[in-house]
Amino acid sequence: MRTDLLGDPIDGLDEALAAVDAFDDALVTGLLRPQPAQTDGLAALAAALGGTPLAALVAEAADKAAAGAAGEDHFVALAAGRTALLGSVHDALTARVREATGRPAAEEPAQPVDGEEPAANVLAAARAWLCDLARAGWRGIDHELVGGAAPVVSAMLPEPLLRRQATLLDGFSAELAASCPGTTLERVPVRRWADLWSRALLLTLPGATRTPAGSTATGRLLPLGTDVQEHATAVQVQVHAVFEPADGTAPRLVRAAVSAPKPDTVVGAGLWQLLRPRMSLLAAVSEGRAVELDAMPVTAEGDLVWDDARARAGEPAEPFATARVALAAAGDPVTAPLDRHPARLAVPVLLEGYAAEREDDGPLTFTVAGHRLAVDTDRVPAAGPLTPEAIATSGACLGLLRWDAGEFLLQPLAVETTVRKKTVAVHAGAWAGGTTDKAGVRAEKAATDAVAVLRERAGKLLRS
């Protein structure tokens, strides 16, 4: 991989992000009575979109918002403009990563298929609440305003087609409620809340959740690595893999994810107990095996809709061998329009021949051919044997190339390191199907005890 390209500047990227930041700052104190600094932020967003199909809409919306007279359509236009700018940043970063890895470009998906439209009145109520948030701003939120989302979420949840919007609104409003009143906040998560606001607003539009028709995948799945994403009340594991179609067409990168609710007392290796019954792929990951797929549903974005009945364990397939042989020719998955955001960048890569360095207490870096790449060891999960120490002494790394805070970062998923003069592979998902590792066994036992107690208490509550 040409790591030298990752450090080169990208034309227009800083300017696009500056326009997004200027608009985000305008949302902090709200757009009910904009001040000069806020009107400048609105103008910056409109100027950045000049010459695009959204130029006239966003310019009009910015003028109305600057006058404190923005309506629903104007807020939607501003959210669309912001999303388009971040989408352009995502596309520029993706193009640079493709240039650095030399992998083939993904094929554009077909047009979204028509489908049943969910209840328009509920979506209109959600838009109204989100517009009220924009007028009040993050400093102006209080429990009464934030509580207005509760009836909207309650009306959405019974409708399967609205679960995505309901989950987003529920999580966003809960986060805002925990920060009320906004006037007392020492620090506002400006980019995060603007991301959630604009995404939630666009998802309330008719047709926003339509997706291209999916297909099925028949062939061999070769796991590369496992990304564990943990929250206090939920956990998700995403397996990145190379898929080799049985019909001999070009291999491509795909993902398979499984998630589960969890109590906050279940942490570390105990997470696997919640996930194992849901996906046989986890056993294949820990055993280092391929998986044979038979008509497994797959979305246009490369996400497998996992069904254990359509999968069976295959031959041994070591991830580093897969990466060395098949990764370079595998096409990257496409990204859905509303998912085009720099934070969504997560590209599997293989690095070898680097020097690991850490200056003082600074971040770990890999130096490849004289070029440095920061390593994000904070993302290493406690649910596996991979540790920052193993990463720092490694000679090869399988990871996800991400972008954060203005630079590319590497999130390790597995490394090859030397133990007693032997090269050993250490994987973040090595304990997914069970382990004999002493630390893993202790963590699993503690989780087993915690889950047993919680189930007993839940049973008593249900019986009463």
Keywords:
alpha+beta; seven-stranded mixed beta sheet; 13 strands; 464 residues; six-stranded mixed beta sheet
The count of helical stretches stands at 14
Largest sheet: 7 strands, mixed
User: Which segments are poorly predicted (pLDDT under 50) over 5 or more consecutive residues?
Assistant: none
- Report the sheet-strand fraction: 15-25%
Q: Please, could you describe this protein's structure?
A:
- The chain is built from 14 helices and 13 strands.
- The chain has helices spanning 13-28, 36-48, 55-66, 72-101, 120-136, 143-147, 149-156, 163-177, 190-202, 271-275, 281-287, 319-326, 388-392, 438-463, and strands at residues 215-230, 234-245, 252-261, 289-298, 303-304, 311-316, 347-352, 355-358, 364-368, 371-375, 394-404, 407-419, 422-427.
- Strands 7, 8, 9, 10, 11, 12 and 13 form a seven-stranded mixed sheet that branches. A six-stranded mixed sheet has the order 5-3-2-1-4-6, with helices on both faces.
- Strand 12 (407-419) and strand 13 (422-427) form a beta hairpin.
- The radius of gyration is 24 Å and the shape is globular.
- The model has no long low-confidence stretch (mean pLDDT 90).
